[in-house]
Each structure stands twice: as structure tokens, then as C-alpha cells.
Fold:
Amino acid sequence: MELQKSPYTVDKLRGLIQFCLDEAKKQGSTGVEASIDVEHGLSVTARLGDVETLENHNDRRLGVTVYANTKKGSSSTTDFELPAVREAVTAACNIAKFTEADECAGLADPDRMATSVMDLGLDCPWGLAPDEAVEIAVECEDRAREFSEISNSEGASISTNRGTHVYGNTHGFVGSYVSTRHSLSCAVIAEQNGAMQRDYWYTTSRNPKDLQSAQDVGAQAAQRTIRRLGAKKITTQTTPVIFEASMARSLLSHFVSAVSGGALYRQASFLLDQLNKKVFSDLVTITEDPHMQGGLGSSAFDMEGVATQPRTLVADGILQGYVLSSYSARKLGMKTTGNAGGIHNLVLHPGQQTLEELISGMQRGLLVTELIGLGVNNVTGDYSRGAVGYWVENGTIQYPVEEITVAGNLKSMFQKIIAIGCDVDRRGSIITPSVLVDDMMVAGS
Amino acid sequence: MTTENMENPLELARETILTPSGLDETNLTQAFSILMDSSADAGDIYFQLRKQEVWSLEDSIVKDASYNLSQGVGIRAIKGEKSGFAYSDEIVLPALLESCKAARAIARGGQGGSVQSWKYCTGNELYLPDNPLDSISETEKVDMLRLLDDLARKQDPRIKQVMVSLAGSHEMILVACSDGQIAADVRPLVRLNVSVIAEHAGRLEQGSAGGGGRVGYDYFAQQDRAHSYVSEAVRMALLNLEAVDAPAGSMNVVLGPGWPGVLLHEAVGHGLEGDFTYKGTSAFSGRVGDRVASKGITVVDDGTLVNRRGSLNIDDEGTATQCTVLIEDGTLKGFMQDRLNAKLSNTVSTGNGRRESYAHLPMPRMTNTYMLAGEYDPGEIISSVDSGFYAVNFGGGQVDITSGKFVFSASEAYLIEKGKVTRPVKGATLIGDGPDVLTRVSMVGNDLQLDTGVGTCGKEGQSVPVGVGQPTLRIDGLTVGGTAN
Structure:
């Protein structure tokens, strides 16, 4: 069986965008923008040595936003037949008759549109046949199950996707790009004295050549699971905490939320009015690199067609800019930063130390490898989440811990970043090494 | 409820989804003959048409609204533990047959089988099939949001920002199975949410409240519901302005009634889903008959509550929903099953086979999960605690079903000192062990409440609406993740 090919050429999709723009103008809109995402892919899960699920993905969605001067309406559809698309446009126009005037509403300024769409190395198709996908998933899970402590498995999954994104608006801008994303993951279970532990590992990239091998993913999943056996609670105390790189990513995502225009103009952020002020410790420099070759967050233009540009967001702890769309920028009396739809490759600059060196430097404290729950208040910065990890004493890992929480306030946690590792995790649009945060409250027994 | 012909879900779904695409039972038979021309044991074809809208207000203006239409057909072939799956967002015969070929690849070879005759199954009648999007006019929707904004701002000058959203969806599904069963459901769902930010002396705090169900928008005007969400959101934001740091460590905890039932959803619910129990990956696998809760505790999953958010007339595999006893008088009784895992576990589906959409595979999911009432007066439960933590509202939660460790995060909580509720404290995450926590419940209140209709559960990337509920509970020794010593 062949991976299903998309029946849509970029030209055909651009034509559909133009149809939306024309149709909305005909219905009286003063400004229109439309976007299309078409994606197809394959995902396979193997469990206990055999294929468990084989899924063919084939998704499409068209969204249109219309402005009747400063009144806005939006709609979307999965039906690409012209009558259905016209109906979607009509629905959006109808909504704009009822919504209220908002002086900040409208398309981004025309002079901010991207003028060229550079090749960012995002389209690297794999051409993986289902049989090959099954083979890789089985190999990955088999490797994990070779470890004698591994007693059960949730399986290994492989997925490969290729999608086309097209955006256009009535400033005359139409941009498109094709991108791929491939992933391999494995989750296994180990058992000791009747208690089970589960952990996982994954690799993901635009280019299949950049994926970790099936053997490595399987082995790492098994090792991470096995080292959790015998986990216990620790006593309630104040202690330094190392957030392993993949968990440090979540800390940075809280930062992005707090400096995003939507949170700022609603006064729903713990980082209000902090521009040019010190929001992190001196060690922290954060840049945004939208044009990184093959980056998972790379894009030449944002969701409004605005050209993206590399910039420094935090320099030596000092906040240099916000994360704004044209709407939130107008609300704040500022200019868009090309972040409609989010951040494009946020990079926390690494330090010199390996994770082992961070651990030995910490001497005594907690290494967090998994966080659960949603205990983060973006308005106040109050932070309290369930954690899994390892207790460190004399600079070395002593034993695994579980059923504990780590708590603090993000404002002070950011200031208390006292070390940054060099173990960079690139598996997302936030690219970060591990970080060591001093003085967190850990609740346990 | 009425049983008029056009209000029959099957007729409605057929007229709305199949007829415009020129499809009928003959085509379904043709599709199954392709799907089952393999060694597949079973298969199903799931048609879905969903219309959704969201209206939102902030800065005292109704700024935006969006309308979304999604439709498609998902096809699954099952062989033993294996599932092959494909879907199309074009509901036309060629795409349907193509997807059948893709899905059957999981069960290569084998004999061709087909559906001989169709049997039409009916489910529960828990809600009306009317489209909530049309239940009030656009002008009325806008007016409602503006009125609520005004109401919130008038309640207290410290309220600086008000956000209100009104969401509705109307979903039709029709599912045909290789055993010849065809069933359909027409599902309305509405939700209203009010969120406010209060400011005092340079401090900002938020509060939010909301509700909904499988009803029309007029539900919010009844019994002053919309007004009560506003008052509740304002009350919570103002209360949080006074809150001190939450304590850290293990302590006695009293949970209020209603939404705190998210405890049950996380601590035991997920671990009792049939896929995890079949695979042996849940901390509850193989434990039916064991004592997993204090005596007197009974927990059910009930998809048959009238008009509730988590309820369904039929699940997404065409099985009528039911009330399933999970824990009875402290003993683990059973699991929640979809068809696949029920068959693998030698039992029958409990009507818990759910999926986010046609583009997702079904799996065992909760509906409305709650604990039955006990005998204690809530006041008596609080006064029994010398020093502890009283949590009455929560954000969300999460569980590791393998280790059993779960969290849920309080958004409104108080200290209990010498049997009295004293100061409000900031939100904190509570963490515990699922198979253990219900054995630590020492008192169950007589005040069972279900939540107001706000829950959405995520599992393996799929979101579905759910409900929870419980009476006031006292739990001895739960870890509270605050920041104060």
C-alpha cells in the first residue's frame, strides 16, 4: 500500500484562497484573510513485537477571517467544494454583522508582509511504506524489551507527516510552504516488588536523517524506565531543583505565555510592564531564530503574513521584547513582532556544564525528569506541579523519587536560575538545555 | 421525549449526512465487502458532521466569533488486537471505498465476508436533537455576553477585566458495524464561561466559572445560571486577592462537593479504562474483587444522565450508554470497555467507546464519573479536622496510570484550623496514589453534587466532554504542594 498522496497542488490551494478573498469582498468585507492546511501521513504503533495500529492520516481545513471595517468574523470548514467554501465565507460575513466595532481589529499592516519566502529546509519527505514503518517500530520496541527488567510495554510508535500551509490576505500577500515532520517514540514498563513504573523516549525532526536510531530510542526508553524502579517520597523541604532539558522547555513556555500580547493587554500576566527590566538571572539569554534550517518552529512569515525576523528576547536576564501579533501590538500601542500564532524557535543559550556536572555542582537537591498537572497560574506566576525525578546527595544521584510536588513563583524561579547546562534538547520549537533553579519548595511526606 | 419521525436520530443523521452525498445502505454494504475482504474480525464506518461556534467578549465588546464545520468518515478494521484505520473528510463513495482499502491493510489476506442485513439500533433518549446554534438569535447571543460583562463589572470596582465565551456545537454521527448494526446520535452541547481579573493594591488575581450541557442556549437564562457564573467568578477573584501562601506537606484534606470529583476521574477513573487494564499497564489491572476504597464508597460511570455534558445516547461505536458500577462499597467491581477491549477481555462493551472525531480511533473513555453520597453532614466533616486543607474548586488534573500517581490542582482552598475554615490560601497541586487514596477516605458527605458541565478529558491526544461529581470527602494524609512551611 502506498502512502496516500495529497490531491492538492500548491497552485490549486492558492486558487482556493483567492476564491475566498474575492467572495468575501463581493459580500462587502473591507479586509479578508484565509489560510489552508492540508496534511497527510501515516502512523504505526507496534506492541509486544507486532503491529497494533496502522493509521492513515489525511486532514484538511480552510479558515477565513473577514473584517467589515473594524468588525470581525471567522469560520472554517473541512469541505473544500466551492459551495461549501462560499458558505464558510458567508458564515464569517454574517458573524461580522453582529460582532462589535473594535478599533484594533484588522489585517496586519501591509508594509510588514513577508516579501520573500526563503527555503528553510522544512520539506524532507521520508517515503516510508507501512511495512517499513512497522519494521522500525518493532525494532525499537524489541530493543527496549531486551532489558530484563522491562515487563510490559505501551509500544513504540512511528509517524510521518507532510503538510502544505497556504496563507493569503487582501493586501495581495499569498505565501505557502510545505513541511514534513517525522517522529519515533517508545514507552515501556518495568516492575519491581509489585510496583510498576513507566517512562518513554522520543525523537522528532523535519528530516528523517536527523532522527535518533530505533535502537537508541528503545534503549533510552528502557533505561529511563528501569531507573525509576524503587521510587519513594522525600520529606517536605526547600531545595535546589534541576529541570532536565525536556522539562526546562515547559518553564520557557510559561515565560512565552507571560510575555505574549494577549496575556499582557488583558493584564493576565505575571510579567506586566517588565520591558527592559531584569526578569531572569544574569545567566539567561534567549533568542528567537525563525529562519533556522530544519527548525521545528521555523517559518518565513507568521499567521498574518508578517515577515519573521531573528531577535534577542532576553539578554543577560533583561527582557528585550514581547511576543506580539498585530492585534495585541495595537492594543499595547506597539508594533507586531511577527508572532501571530506563536513563537518561532525560542533558544535558551546553553552554558558550559553537562547534566552530570550540573548534578555534581548542585551537590544536594532534586533532579526533575517529569512534571504532571496544570498547576501554573499565568496571572500571578504561582507554580505547583507534581514531579518525578531523582534525589541527589554529595553530587550524585541517590534514588528515584515520586509522589512529590515542586512549588514556587515563576517570577522568583526565573531570577534563581543559577546554572544552565549544555545538554540542548532540540525536539520542539523551544530549544533548551537543563536548568538549575535554587530554593524551590518540595512537598512530600 | 418525542419520537416523531424527523426527530429520530437515525433518520436525521441519514437525511443530513448520507442522502446529500448520494449514499445509502447499499453503498455501506459495498464498503463493508471491501473492508472485510481480508482476515479482519470486525470493522466499523463512522460518519460525523459537526457544526460549532464560539462567541467571545473581552474589553466589554463582543470582538469575535467563529463558526466551524467539520465532516468526514472514519473506517476501522480490527483483527485480534490490531486496528487498521483511515479516514476522509470527503463523504463520497470513491473516498469511502478508498479508505476501506487502506484500513483493511492491517488484516491482509483471508476470506471476503460482508454484511448480510442491517439492523437499526436505538439508544437512550437523554437530550433533544435540536441545534443549539439556532436556539437563540445572534443578537441575543451578543446581548447575553454584554449583559454578563456589565453585571460582573457592577459587582465590584476591583474587577478590571471580564472575558465571556459562549460555545455551542451540534454533532450528528452515524456508525455502521460489520455485525450489521447501524446506530446514530444527534448531540447538542453548549458551554458558557466567565473569567474575570481583579486588581487591588498592585495585586492581580483571576476567577472563573461556567457551565453547560446537552441543551440549548436558553439553559443559561433559566434558574439565573448565567448570573450565578458571573457571581461565582467575581467571588473567586476577590477571594484570591486575600489568599496567603498554601501549606506544603502531607495533611488531612477535605474536598468540597461537585467538580472536586476530578479526584475520582484521575485517581481511579483512567486506571479503570479497559485498554489499560487489558494491556496490564494500569495499577488497577487484574484487581477486580480487591478492596480499593474505604467501606461505604461507591463510584460509578454513568453515561445516561439527562442533558449532562458527559452523557451520550449511544457511544461512538453504537452501543447504548449505561451506568457502570466501578467500585461498590469499597470493592473494585469492573472496568469501562469499548468493543475492542471488551472482546479481548472476554466481556461486553459498557458503552464507553468514544472518539474525538471521525479522524480518531475509538477507545475506552469516561462519561460522567461520580461517587454516591454517604451519611455525614459536610459541616461535621470539616469540624472533625483539627488542622488541614479544605479545597472546594479545582483546575484540572493528570495521572500516570502505571505508577498510579495522580495530581489535581486546587483553584480555591482554605486552611482548616481547630475544626473551622479560616484563611483562604493560594492554589496548590495535590498529589496522591490512585489505588491508595480512596482507602484514606474517612468520611463521605451526604451532599452529592455533579459539576456544572465544564469538563474536557484528554487521552492520547483526543479530547472528549466529560462530567464528574462527588459529595464532600475527608481524606487522611494527602500531599499538598504549597510553598509555605
In short: The radius of gyration of chain A is 24 Å. Chain A has nine helices and 17 strands. The longest helix of chain A spans residues 10-26.
